[in-house]
Amino acid sequence: MLKKGLFCISFLTFMIAFAMSSSQPVFSEETFMPVWAATNYEDRTIFSEQTPMPLSVATKYENKQRGLFSRQIEGIVEHESMPHRRMITPCVDYDNEKMEDKTGDDRGGREFLPARHNENSQGEPSTGKNEDGGKYPKLELGFVIMWDYDQFNGLHTGLKHREYRVGSETELRRACIDINGEIDRRWHAEFEVSFEDGTDKAEVNDAFINFTGWEEITITIGKTKEPFCLEELTSSKHISFIERSMAASAFSPGHSPGLELSGYKGDFTWAIGAFESGKIENRRDTYALTGRLTFTPLNDNRQVLHTGIAGSLRDLGGEEYQIEERAEVHTAEEIVAGVSVPADDVHLMCVELAWVYGPFSLQSEYMNTKIKAVSRSPDVEYSGYYVQGGYFLTGESRQYKRGVFGRVKPVAGYGAVELVSRYSFIDAGSDNRGVEAGNLALGMNYYINKNVRLMVDYIETELKDCISKGKGKAEAISSRIQCDF
């Protein structure tokens, strides 16, 4: 099992080395210089009046009396106030995402590129007037494809006493179609549907409408993620491991229909909403109240410190509540099983902490759930946590914005390499029933570009049965190729 794991990691390392050796030079007259390099490369004139300029060039002269003019060149702005000196500064983001000015709240601890204010959505010079009629409605279409291959042994196969047996499976873990629409500056809608192996039906993940017409408050109506848990709210496209930790998967409510109010002010973000938690007999809905508050005391170009707390009060109306998890291996058996409790109410709590310092990142969360059982049944309490760290060998940094982590963008043509490790634990035992489980995971991520990623994780699981006090072990190697655009 370990030999195969080393083979997978060695194969991925070979691919990275090959990509690095065969990539084009970053700096050349024919190759467009990345923004991060251009800002620090002032001693050399890349574009001159005698050198043919690449692609399309739109030139605009302003303030001729002062001798100051600007030239916009495919996302680069040249400012020239003296004939012997030019400074190249970034203009727009490569990912076509709207970014605020460097003095705004959206820096997220990184050198975000300022938004383009002098062009409309078609890239034409703006007249400075209200042109909503020509810009809206807008429609964007996105796709996500994740293919996984897992190999595992021990308890993951469902055989407690035959740890030598090995199982493996290939799976279309996730295939999503995402549609985003903007009616005008105040109204936005999103619809996302996903497909998975082994299911004949598509599942609607998100289907909601946003209203942003009120200052500092956003109203969301429809099916969306409840505001709970940093790892859960971070998109699966941007998490550091193939699967989320056991605690995040077990305790997070996930997607639910409801009404949510959210906003941000300075270093704070907040969200609170009423959601549907389930349906019981006689077609009666049960409801939940879920809220989250984050505070970012450090948020600059060098580092980010994130803190947060979330809670959820859930009415189950006597329905059974039970934790069932696969120990971070999606194709394996559900070996983490708690006690089934007829629950009246469930109280969830989460404490969040994350720190990013250049290429290094640290993230941890503690979660707790208290189940108030119906009459004559004992109450139950579960808990769990995880601690994970990561380091980019190629110098990138995790992107952070308004309480969640976002897309990693390689700064060089050969991509980005990240090493990650995580320990997660969950206590799903009560009154000498249920189990306790701990996972140690090591992984490597290779970002070919901002849209394609290769991932390999090694996971070692230890399970303790609260009844027999016996222990069992399991190992797994998971790999993924991911593409989103």
List SSEs in N-to-C order.
Answer: HHEEEEHEEEEEHHEEEEEEEEEEEEEEEE
On the 0 to 100 scale, the average pLDDT is 76
Spatial order of the strands forming the largest sheet: 5-6-7-8-9-10-11-12-13-17-18-19-22-23-24-25
Q: Radius of gyration from the CA trace?
A: 25 Å
Q: What is the level-2 CATH architecture name of the domain at 138-174 and 211-484?
A: Beta Barrel
- CATH class category label of the domain at 138-174 and 211-484: Mainly Beta
Largest sheet: 16 strands, antiparallel, barrel
Low-confidence stretches: 17-132
Strand content: over 45%
User: What is the structural class?
Assistant: mainly beta
Count of strand segments: 25
Total of DSSP H or I helical runs spanning 4+ residues: 5
User: What is the quaternary state of this protein?
Assistant: single chain
CATH topology of the domain at 138-174 and 211-484, what is it called? Porin
CATH homologous superfamily descriptor of the domain at 138-174 and 211-484: Porin
Distance between the termini: 34 Å
Q: Assign an overall shape.
A: globular
Quick recap:
This protein is mainly beta.
What does this structure look like?
- With 485 residues, this protein is mainly beta.
- About 24% of the residues have low confidence.
- The strands form 4 sheets. Strands 5-6-7-8-9-10-11-12-13-17-18-19-22-23-24-25 form a 16-stranded antiparallel beta barrel. A 4-stranded antiparallel sheet has the order 1-2-3-4.
- The chain has a domain of 311 residues: Porin, CATH 2.40.160.
- It contains 5 helices and 25 strands.
